[in-house]
Structure formats: C-alpha cells, structure tokens
Design goal:
binds flavin mononucleotide; two-stranded antiparallel ribbon; globular; 17 helices; alpha/beta; 346 residues; TIM Barrel
C-alpha cells in the first residue's frame, strides 16, 4: 500500500522570485531548533550490536542538526547493563533533539520514576509512547490488553517534565484517535507513522514463517496493508488536533516526500527504515542519504517559492486520487482544510 504521496502534488512555480541561497530549512520542533525538518524516528537499542547503530545515528543527527529518536527502552529499563546502547545518543548528539521511547504496554506498567529514567538515559527532549496494537495482535507473544491506555497516557503527559509524543508504528493515526489525544491528554505532539512505509505485520509474518507457524503467518499476511495511509493520516490528525505538533512519517523516502508531508500539515518529517539500512553500512552512507533528502527538500522549496518552512507549510498543493476520495468521504473539505487548518499549530 502506498503512503499516498503520489496523490499529493506541489504546484510548480516557474517564477520562484527567490534565490536558492535565501531559502532557510531551519525550524523548531517542541521548542528545539532543527537545521532541517527531519527526525530519525525510534528504532534500536537494547542489544550490544545496536550501540554502534545508535552512536552513528546520533553523530550524523548532531552534525546535520536533525532530530533523533531511540527504539523502545524497555530492555534497558529491565536490564540496566544495556543502558549504554541508548545513552550513547546523549554522548554523541549533545545538542540535537533527542526522543526517548517506550511502548504503551510498558507505559501502563511503569511508574513515573521509571519513565524519568528512560528520559535521563538519553537526556531526551521528549518521550514518545508508541502504539502498536496491530503488532501486539498478530504477534504470538503479543500483549492484547488495550484498555486504560488513553487514561495512562493522560496521567503521564501531565506528570512528566518533558513533552509527550504519541507515536504509531506504521498503521497511522486517524481523526478519532487524534481527537481523543488532543481533548483528553496534555500530549504535545503526534507522530502519525502511517501506512505505506515499514509494515510491522510483514515483519511478524516473516517471524512466524521462520518459526514454521503457518497460522500466525497467515494472520499477519492478511494485515500487511492494514492502516491509514500517511498522507491521509497527517490531514486527519491536523484536522482533529489543530494545536498539536505533528511528525509526518511512514514511507517518507525522499526530500520531495518531506516537502509533501510539511505542505500537508506536519511540522517535521520522520524517517526510519531507510536510515537503518544506510547506518549499518557506515557513517558516510547515512550522511549521504540525509544530505540527499535535505538537498531535494531545498530544491522543492525553491520550486514552490518557499523561503522558509512556514512558507512551505502554506504552499499550493493539489490532492487527487484515493487520498482525495478518502478525505471527502471522511467529511473533510480539502479546500477549507488547506486554507484554514494545515497551519494551525502552536
Ligand atoms: C527496525 C525497526 C525498529 C523499530 N522499532 C521501533 C520502536 O522500538 N519504537 C517505535 O516507536 N517505533 C519503532 N519503529 C517504527 C519507526 O519508528 C517508524 O514509525 C516506522 O518504521 C515508519 O517509518 P518508515 O516507513 O520510515 O520506516 C521501528 C521501525 C523499524 C524499521
């Protein structure tokens, strides 16, 4: 399933009336400065071999002025000898935006003190609580108790000294969930992590396949394409939660995709699997990928006449195809959305 970016067209301006060098990619996310609106979202930590990965992700994020998240910190909270695989991020990215990470299952079980430990471990500017109900359902050993999650997120968002981000993991956030988060919690941001990028159901399908579990494999295969595509998810989330900051992620694969998620209403773009694929090949490969994204974004900004990220978030766009059909059926007037909603953040 596609994230829907091919339905989103940035309207080209043959007369940009600005010079390439005048364009600024700088922005802030949750009050922290980014040199470009790109965040490497949480993936790894907890095994000795992930130390090098998190170190390199941190080094490159620090050099390029981007944000960086770590993967679920559960392993280190339950076994402190693994903390170094996460804390390396604060050592190598002292000034970058850093995001701690915990699953909703642990968020329900852990005390506020445990969560503070996770934050201190990476000197985090924010804590992401990830939602992965699909993965929990299709995993053999998954946790299937979902009741009480919103109430716990609300408590955590009120008690922690850093902002809380609610984050999906590849199946997207829709209007109803974004509204619950906006109205019933003090969460400050949503990472939509929509359908169209990494599929956790696919990961679980391969795991089940390797174990010879045909039943589990069949269930996971059926849910491969389940979810809300990223382009739709950004619009639904912004429509429901106009004052929250949004990370547009799930299938972001180029600087043009970054430009599209911003023009749709996100404050920054998130990227995961492509960064992991490059980081395992070394620092230079990851730096190359991210520099490419930044250059493509820069050019897209010139060609839409956007001098700044705020200009890009007001750029002329056209939404066609399945994304348009979906939004119309959900009662969202695209014209009204583009004129009045996509910029409505703090
Ligand atoms: C190998 C891998 C591990 C991941 N682990 C986590 C995790 O621990 N916590 C989390 O919130 N998201 C996790 N994610 C989800 C990503 O942060 C991201 O939301 C998702 O992969 C969609 O982005 P992408 O299409 O750019 O990969 C993981 C993704 C990958 C590829």
């Amino acid at each position: 399933m596609s994230p829907g970016f091919s339905d989103v067209h940035l309207v080209h301006r043959s007369l940009p009336e600005l010079n390439y060098d005048e364009v600024s990619l700088e922005t802030t996310f949750l009050g922290k400065k980014l040199r470009a609106p790109i965040i490497i979202t949480g993936m790894t930590g907890g095994h000795p071999e992930t130390y090098e990965i998190n170190k390199t992700l941190a080094e490159v994020a620090e050099k390029l002025g981007l944000g960086v998240g770590v993967g679920s910190q559960r392993a280190a909270l339950e076994n402190p000898s693994l903390e170094y695989t996460f804390s390396v991020v604060k050592e190598y990215a002292p000034t970058a935006l850093k995001i701690a990470n915990i699953g909703f299952v642990q968020a329900k079980k852990y005390s506020i003190d445990m969560l503070l430990k996770a934050i201190d471990m990476v000197d985090a500017d924010a804590l992401a609580i990830h939602l992965n109900p699909l993965q929990e359902c299709v995993q053999i050993e998954g946790d299937r108790e979902f009741k009480g999650t919103l109430r716990r997120i609300a408590e955590i968002s009120r008690e922690l000294p850093v902002p809380v981000i609610v984050k999906e993991t590849g199946t997207g956030i829709g209007y109803e969930v974004a509204k619950m988060i906006a109205e019933e919690t003090d969460v400050k941001a949503i990472d939509v992590s929509g359908l169209g990028g990494t599929s956790w159901s696919a990961v679980e399908m391969y795991r089940a396949m390797r174990k010879g579990d045909f039943f589990g494999e069949s269930v996971a295969r059926e849910f491969w394409d389940w979810g809300i595509p990223t382009a739709v998810s950004i619009v639904e989330t912004r429509f429901a939660a106009p004052h929250l900051e949004i990370i547009g992620s799930g299938g972001v694969r180029s600087g043009i995709d970054v430009a599209k998620v911003l023009a749709l209403g996100a404050n920054a773009a998130g990227i995961a699997l492509p960064a992991l694929k490059e980081v395992v090949k070394g620092y230079d490969r990851l730096e190359f990928l991210l520099k490419l994204l930044i250059e493509e974004l820069h050019i897209a900004m010139v060609l839409t006449g956007s001098r700044s990220v705020s200009d890009l978030r007001r750029a002329e766009i056209v939404i066609i195809g399945r994304t348009r059909e979906w939004l119309i059926q959900r009662g969202i007037s695209i014209k009204e959305y583009l004129e009045k909603f996509r910029l409505r953040t703090v």
